[in-house]
Amino acid sequence: MRHLEDYEDAISRCFHCQICQAACPVYLQDLLETYCARARLGLVQAVFLEQTLNVTPRLREVMDRCLFCTRCTRHCPAGVPLDDVFALARENLGKQLGEQGRDGGAWTAPDAGVPGPVAGPLKSGLGEIPAVKGPVRARVAYYPGCATSRLFQDTGQAVLRVMSENGVQVMIPEGLSCCGFPAYVAGDLHTFRRAMQENLSILSGLDVDAILVDCASCGMAFKVKAGEVAKGDGAMEDQAARVAEKTWEATDYLNHLGPVAEPGAVAGVWTYHAPCRIGWTPTAEEAPEALLQDIPGAQYEALETTGACCGAGDLFHLRHGELSRSIRTKRLKEIRRNGAHTVVTQCPFCRYYLQQGGSDLEVMHPLAFLARAYGEMREA
Length: 380
What we know:
alpha/beta, four-stranded parallel β-sheet, globular
């Protein structure tokens, strides 16, 4: 597993261009340079590498006021892996300041209407896997993350329905657990690595064409972060590489495979909110429009800024409620300006948070929208 010292050369590549300012939703709301990635990076370098500054609760506050949206990493022209550095910084803070060193915000009550969790394995409540319609075109494994299995089972059911309609045979392996990404964000890299070991041992041995996820964060965990925490462990590195090679966001996979089922009509105006963490795949942001634009009666209206954050950030919205809601308000205003009543997104936290802020909107996974069109076709 990597340590902060392993990133010293990468950190030194920062040439203070300040592009991360324009990419950071927290900075754009606070307008304080302390909370942009460049300033945080300088603090990490001074405190943990050069040791010219001390570890303090204030440093914890600065590091905690970060959504881990990864937009700074995606936009950094020097290629500094800022999110990896900040995760390790949170890990070090946890070691030196105790658990509050990783999680220093003041907790607030969640919005009303959070779905009740469902106990059991990850695939609990998703029902039977539908039989494939027509010839089998591909065989895939489906990783339904915690949010899909525990909170938004309609997303999992939609993935299964849509894949069966398009000749994709789906299996859900036994023994899967949380991908561990929330632990990664909190700086608990030991827990993240342990979770990854469990899942990689199962997924890496499957004889399938692809491994599908419906959550942007789960996809990032398997596609990118697993390989980082596996460094130095040859067996785990090999497993991580095999899983990363086959990991696809489900909407993106179907778009590349090519749908064959004809959808029925669904009236209404819809738009797409791209999750911040979908950047691990360069084509997932194109997939919803490509797949859904041919649904009769459905009118697509693009947002002015496709990559703007909704402010959820896993549990960030519970620790920094006012800041988070301010970021969400901007996004909701933009959504309403384009006249859309349905929003599709590949992130369950985005779905939940946008829905709670916009009761007049319907928020769902892109494949749930497509499954609705297939349902209309069958019922017509």
